[in-house]
């Protein structure tokens, strides 16, 4: 590789890192806005109007790609399963933050990479060594600490967060299996699924929003869609192994936004559990980087 090519590669990686950090910030902002809105409106109503807002960004992208391409999908069964799990991920997250602090819910979602490591072995046939299996088990211990199994029963909001985080992991796995499908198509059908389910849940539980609240729900969709697109672009510019640990900045932003906007202070149980999960996840990323060599095509040579 020439000096010029090396500099270009480093520039792409830096751009990917910055986009990843920006996308995670937008996701955390989306989560804080969602928590504020579901305090006054039903989850279904927020998800419905949020999905409509996402089409302010998706609309021009669909027009550029061509609407007919939305129907030319690989493996329709997996596409449908991805829509279902993505919708569960979104709806259960908002259902959980109605009752739990933002950082608590986000801590459950930080276990996503741990679930991905386990599911990759079971569903994708990827080899997971004993060190990563040990990290997966340790990560599950962190989840159990947050669930507080010594209670008479797990709280329903915690169960929402747990199932939502597992759904999130399935979305990642299914996205790998459907990597031949364009980002526009994946995000569009994911948004359509959320729109349909949100509309169904909003029936009988509709509260007419004022202009400010309606605009905030539309903006929620714009912010969320923008975050998806930034992270998708980041993964095309830099290796996933470089970017994945940056995803844990979401937890930091969740703590900050929770303190500033909702006066939520994470409990020691949540801090200990999330700390275990983060350490286990970082070790899994490290072992993945050690075991695998990053292929050249994971670093973009051109910007589309």
Automatic annotation (TrEMBL):
UniProt keywords, alphabetically: Membrane, Transmembrane, Transmembrane helix
Domain EamA intervals: 15-147, 159-284
UniProt xrefs under InterPro entries: EamA_dom, EmrE-like
Transmembrane residue ranges: 12-30, 36-59, 80-100, 106-123, 130-147, 153-174, 186-204, 210-231, 243-262, 268-285
Keyword Transmembrane annotated: yes
Pfam family, one: EamA
Gene Ontology CC annotations of this record: membrane
PANTHER family to which the protein is assigned, alphabetical: ACYL-MALONYL CONDENSING ENZYME-RELATED (PTHR22911), BLR4310 PROTEIN (PTHR22911:SF135)
Protein name: S-adenosylmethionine uptake transporter
Species in which this protein is naturally found: Neomesorhizobium albiziae
């Amino acid at each position: 590789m020439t000096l010029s090519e090396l500099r270009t590669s480093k520039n792409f990686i830096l751009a990917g890192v910055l986009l990843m950090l920006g996308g995670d910030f937008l996701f955390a902002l989306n989560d804080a806005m969602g928590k504020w809105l579901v305090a006054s409106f039903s989850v279904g109503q927020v998800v419905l109007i949020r999905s409509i807002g996402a089409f302010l960004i998706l609309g021009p992208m669909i027009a550029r790609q061509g609407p007919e391409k939305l129907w030319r999908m690989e493996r329709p069964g997996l596409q449908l399963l991805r829509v279902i799990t993505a919708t569960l991920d979104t709806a259960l997250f908002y259902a959980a933050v109605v009752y739990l602090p933002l950082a608590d819910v986000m801590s459950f979602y930080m276990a996503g990479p741990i679930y991905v490591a386990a599911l990759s072995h079971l569903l994708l046939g990827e080899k997971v060594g004993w060190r990563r299996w040990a990290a997966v088990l340790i990560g599950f211990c962190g989840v159990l600490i947050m669930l507080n199994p010594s209670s008479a029963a797990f709280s329903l909001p915690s169960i929402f967060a747990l199932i939502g985080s597992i759904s999130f992991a399935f979305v990642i796995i299914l996205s790998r299996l459907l990597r031949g499908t364009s980002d526009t198509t994946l995000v569009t059908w994911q948004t359509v699924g959320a729109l349909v389910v949100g509309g169904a849940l909003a029936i009988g539980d509709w509260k007419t929003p004022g202009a400010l609240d309606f605009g905030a729900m539309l903006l929620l969709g714009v912010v969320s869609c923008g975050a998806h697109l930034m992270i998708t672009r980041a993964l095309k510019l830099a290796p996933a192994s470089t970017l994945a640990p940056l995803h844990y900045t979401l937890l930091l932003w969740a703590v900050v936004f929770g303190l500033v906007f909702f006066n939520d202070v994470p409990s020691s149980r949540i801090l200990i559990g999330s700390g275990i999960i983060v350490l286990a996840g970082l070790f899994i990323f490290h072992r993945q980087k050690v075991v695998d060599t990053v292929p050249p095509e994971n670093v973009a040579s051109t910007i589309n």
